[in-house]
Amino acid sequence: MSIEVRQINKRFGDFVALDDINLDIQTGELLALLGPSGCGKTTLLRIIAGLETPDRGSILFHGEDATDTHVRERQVGFVFQHYALFRHMTVFENVAFGLRVRPKHTRPTDAAIKQKVHTLLELVQLDWLADRYPAQLSGGQRQRIALARALAVEPRVLLLDEPFGALDTKVRKELRRWLRRLHDEMHITSVFVTHDQEEALEVADRVVVMNKGRIEQTGTPEQVYDQPATPFVYQFLGDVNLFHSRVHEGWAEVGGTRFAAPEAGDKAVIYVRPHEIDIQRIATDKALAGVITHVRLLGATVRLEVNVAAGDPVEVELTRERYTEGRWSVGEAVWLSPREARVYAG
Amino acid sequence: MTIDRPAGLDIDSTATPARLTLSGRLDAEHCAALWPRARAALAQGSVVDASAVDYCDGTGAALLFDLIQRGGQVQGLPERFAPLLAELEPERPLTVPRRPTPPRLIARVGLFAAEVGREAHAAISFIGEATAAGFAVLRQPGQLRLGETLRVATSAGADALPIVALIAFLLGVILAFQSAVPMRQFGAELFVANLVGLSLVRELAPLMTAVLLAGRTGAAFAAEIGTMKVNQEIDALVTMGLDPMRFLVLPRLVAVACTVPLLTLFAELIGMFGAALVLIGFGIPMATSASQIMDFVDMSDYLTGLFKSFVFGLGIAGIGCMRGLQTGSGARAVGASATSADVRAIVMLVVADGLFAVAFYYLDW
């Protein structure tokens, strides 16, 4: 089912949570709402679910206005960050709950419910936990049960609010791959909220980057990463080094390297990712002189912090091999030259 | 090993701005003495030479921090003490947040009125929703969750029997004793049974039961529902198409409204029994006490007492559930809800009891 979000506005007191949001979500797609905390992504999700009402604007489900439709009739499955499992019920009862409480004429028979719950528990690979209570489960297991519970009512839309936010990194990675596979099998229109750019880029078909109640960019993971529409998107999707420069005849400069500048303005801000900087010991006039002040090992990569004469320290990322080859050490004078950069009017 | 010198401060006032030299042990014992002098001598841009410092603890770091904040430049602090100072982030201006001025009287009255208005609005919409849910269930009695209702009735009613019995018994005993002593002066011990019986039935048993209930059950409802709210279980229910009013609130209201009159009746009997026991000590047999009470306290007294306790029960359960549903976020919010449910329920009891007293007086019941 497709969802259309039309000019949604929401305020909490003086705080503008959502400012004129427009968004189309296609049938069967997995969409990520990505942004820093407080950017309004959860509020948007809750408005789509019907848990919150917008001040203005409308939500269309399959082309029909659902703004005033009660949550009950929207048929959404919602997965919460902190699972929200019913503590006094077993795993089986939790998953069966949504079916058990249906009015008599739409309620499946007990046998059908049992069958369905077991199918779902198999789907989330936790069939053997049916008789346990939520408190006896690990975080990852709980979240999978919560997902099974949300799927039990055969929702038309699946909404996930930071589903992996409370889990540790390893479980999180495992679960997001699993979620992707699950989505490929079921093809249910899904929207999930996250503040983790890696998660959004890895799992989603499309990513919506939000900031301060507005949508900064919408696109496939490749699009938002390779062609960030705004400096915010560029910064949010990875580490960056920032250089300020004057614009001369349409060129901005870092060290001596020139980059084409946008038309407007005579000042530019240049963003360079740490892994897009070359480091060498030989001085050239196209490079930026500096001194290595810190070396940080981050597993497969190494981060060097280089103090340069003008501006903030620059971070340079090298692979482990390049680092060992170069034998870089703290205190050494080096020259930096950016290979790639993005230039925005400053 | 070198013996540490006590802290010293040399001020070179020939330089402009003055140059300060700190030396020796900068610790809690010695810093206090030189602090005011250092402060007085320091001018904007003064250089503070700390290279002769042998020892520096938290107090010393605080002194350096203070001097830096006042515009001094600390130089030559030995490497081993640098982290201690760095921890304090001396370069960041220390901003002491100004205490918000309390609003003026008129503003306070306005804020209070707005708060009362919000509360009233919330209470009215809660009562409205609960009534609507109640009527929906009356039309289709199958919609009431019977299992949940019985569970709540057990915990709010049956489980409360021991404590209600204890309080009611003591209440009867105390009332009988306190009134029997002066009554004996007039030879009227016999009428103590009438007095205790009537006050228990009309006033004290409903009120004491309700107070116990407010502490035991009202707060528990607020905590139960509040925890569900904080854990987003209520949101989960709503997305599954369940109305928390019908699903959580109504069973509690029904259970409490049904069990409280029964509890009250039980309290009345136990209280009278306690009073009768005391009266045996004054030479009045139990049978006599019983017949006195039966002659004097009539059906309308019982019914008004039970009606009152029914209303009290509904009020307590309603306040508990409402507070639970209004719980904010965070674990502390649950505690706040439970406390406020308890306090409000007791205030409600006293006010309602007063209103009942006036109403019954004019109705001549």
UniProtKB/TrEMBL annotation, chain A:
CDD domains noted in UniProt: ABC_CysA_sulfate_importer (cd03296)
Protein's UniProt keywords contain Membrane: yes
Keywords, sorted A to Z: ATP-binding, Cell membrane, Membrane, Nucleotide-binding, Sulfate transport, Translocase, Transport
InterPro entries from the UniProt entry: AAA+_ATPase, ABC_SmlMolc_Importer, ABC_transporter-like_ATP-bd, ABC_transporter-like_CS, CysA_C, Mo/tungstate-bd_C_term_dom, P-loop_NTPase, Sulph_transpt1
GO MF terms held by the record: ATP binding
Membrane among keywords: yes
Signal peptide: none
Domain (ABC transporter): residue spans on this chain: 3-237
Gene3D superfamilies in the record: P-loop containing nucleotide triphosphate hydrolases
Tree of life domain: Bacteria
Pfam families hit by this protein: ABC_tran (PF00005), CysA_C_terminal (PF17850), TOBE_3 (PF12857)
Protein name, entry field: Sulfate/thiosulfate import ATP-binding protein CysA 2
From TrEMBL, chain B:
Domain MlaB-like STAS: 20-70
Gene Ontology MF terms in the entry: metallopeptidase activity
Keyword ATP-binding part of the UniProt annotation: no
Bilayer-crossing regions: 160-177, 253-282, 302-322, 343-363
InterPro entries, sorted: MlaB-like_STAS, Permease_MalE, STAS_dom_sf
Keyword set, alphabetical order: Hydrolase, Membrane, Metalloprotease, Protease, Transmembrane, Transmembrane helix
Cross-referenced Pfam families: MlaE (PF02405), STAS_2 (PF13466)
Annotated protein name in UniProt: Glycoprotein endopeptidase metalloprotease
Entries under Gene3D superfamilies matching the protein: STAS domain
Keyword Ribonucleoprotein found: no
